[in-house]
Amino acid sequence: MTENRRPLGSDLARIAVFAALIIVLGMVTIPLPGGVPITGQTLGVMLAGLVLGARRAPLAVLLVLALAAVGLPVLAGGRGGLGVFVGPTAGYLLGWVAGTIVIGLIAYSGRFTWWRAAIAAVVGGIGVVYLFGIPVLAAVTGMPLGAAALSNVVFLPGDLLKAAAAVVLVVALARAYPRALADRASGRLAPIVTAEAARAS
């Protein structure tokens, strides 16, 4: 794959766009008992990881978290302020950063394909986020770790649907505008090799 160098401003613009997307999707929220709502923000995190890759996607998430830290209501339910980083959802927020890295590493470990994107979204966008979120939820609420893990079962069907939606959207983007996706070797935004191009070559 030929590396396609882009100006720094282009990368920063994409990071900002995905930070904004994560914030907007946070407006889609369903409150649940226990303080951890069902939110569309994890869909934004998955999309960022799949499109921007392991180097730039975490920056989009960190931008959102920085805005939250200064008090802007950018998280689900209009939350913001330093309190969110010591609350029951704090681990999930950290999991977003780690999750986008894992998503990018898996998605671009080889030629971009729908099944590699699906594995990345499930492992990074669900598994890694839960891995960070559940222990913190248990520690903050005083809930046993097993009970905290069990409480996340209610989120799993929705998260799987979000992973499927992210894959469908990114595969469609790859076909319509492959230059939008990250280059697996450099982390830069560059064309991917589609199945049609591979057959034609």
UniProtKB/TrEMBL annotation:
Q: Which organism is it from?
A: Microbacterium istanbulense
Q: Which Pfam family would be a valid example here? A: BioY
How is the protein disposed in the membrane?
A: Multi-pass membrane protein
Gene3D superfamilies for this protein: 1.10.1760.20
**Cellular compartments annotated:** Cell membrane
Q: Does the keyword Metal-binding apply?
A: no
Query: What is the similarity comment for this entry?
Result: Belongs to the BioY family.
Q: Which InterPro entries match?
A: BioY
Provide the transmembrane region boundaries. 12-30, 36-52, 59-78, 90-110, 117-140, 160-178
Name by which UniProt lists this protein: Biotin transporter
Q: Which UniProt keywords apply?
A: Cell membrane, Membrane, Transmembrane, Transmembrane helix, Transport
